[in-house]
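re: ur question from yesterday

yeah so i grabbed the chain u mentioned. its 377 aa long if i counted rite. heres the sequnce exactly as i have it in my notes:
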Amino acid sequence: MIVYLDNSATTKPCDECVSAVNRMLCENWGNASSLHSLGVKAMKSVIDARNAVAQSLGADANEIVFTSGGTEANNLAVFGAVKARKRLGKKIVTTAVEHESVLQSMQELEKEGFEVTYLQPDSFGRITKEQLFEAVTGDTILVSMMYINNEVGSIMPVESIARAVKRANSPALIHIDCVQAYGKININAKKLGADLISVSAHKIHGAKGVGALYINKNANLTDQNFARIFGGEQEKRLRPGTEATPLIAGFGEAVKAFDTSFDIKPLNSYAKKRLSEIDSLKFNSGDDASPYIINIFVPTFMRSQTIIQELCSNYGVYVSSGSACAKGKKSHVLSAMRLSDDVLDKSIRISLSRYNTKEDIDILVDALKDLIEAHPK
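ran it thru and got these structure tokens back, copy pasting raw so excuse formatting
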């Protein structure tokens, strides 16, 4: 039996996605850029998926560009925004707890002479709107912030970014990394005042290898700002090359399969109640964090990687120690939260999906109790 609790890393593809991918591979396999009937049929599936993603973000279809995933979408957004606004200033505002795809992009921009302000979190990974308002100034050209942190689930003050930019009379473009928020909370691009939004399919029960970047048509951004690959007319020349039609179609079906009535909070509450039975266990996620993510310190002498391996090998329980992209490195998020080395070394992330059950939580907690009893701190 598999108890999968690593949904912030990736999710199990839903049946609707799998069916669409198979259909595109086996029946509708034409090149969407071809002008014959097979190509036209494939393009209709791409258009259908683009409409689904656009509707889910309260956007227009022509504002959606398909990418290979959240990392590429984030890179396109950050570098594209800076290229578009570089004559208006050198200052960028982000946070110290962003995904590596944003942080490493910022480090490259610093090498080019841009000034990056990294807002620092509190001990639960939270950033305040007051910090944001103080940081954004008249020469800020980009504010890039995730909606929900991928390691501890802290919810960022993204709804205040547009107000901060307006108050500072700043020319800044607004980029919101919604990879962990998409499909879990309602996201409306226009209400957020966002110029750029990144999303990814494999976090919402779609297939790996596809995501999307929302580009507000009123931001007056062009392919000259964004183009980093050349050689075709696809995706408005922002990401040329043959479209991955099976993945895109699967993405669209995963979006349509969103269950807007689903509420993960009861399962989150049950998980916290059960986990609280473990003496000396500490929650690194705040009470106001996303209910899909619970980051905990495990009171044992074993380090995170060993805990993860033991849970997987002996109990069939799958969790993580943070971002899968970090590949076992110490969490920069927990470090930025100024937690102790002991907490950094012995924390794991539990991330939920609509497919998880109370039985999954019971198996996890019982497994943790066994491990701690066998390997006390």
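noticed a couple things. The chain has a mean pLDDT of 92. also The longest strand covers residues 140-146.
anyway ttyl
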